[in-house]
Amino acid sequence: MSTTLTVEGMSCGHCEQTVEEAIEALAGVQGAEADKDAEQVSVDGDVSTEQLIAAVEDAGYDAKA
């Protein structure tokens, strides 16, 4: 399953890495790719949207489906 979230607040490569690592730490996630220019993160895996949003917000960014 693939999910794309809108993520606000990423301004650099380190931000992208932080978001990716926060999501990849969740059980069931196979991979994540953040794009600061598109303000999105694409996630492969079997995880609820609510869990993904919570992980991004815990990392300090705003996320929505």
UniProtKB/TrEMBL annotation:
Pfam families linked: HMA
GO MF terms, alphabetically ordered: metal ion binding
Domain HMA, residue spans: 1-64
CDD domains hit by this protein: HMA
Domain of life: Archaea
Name by which UniProt lists this protein: Heavy-metal-associated domain-containing protein
Species of the source: Haloarcula hispanica
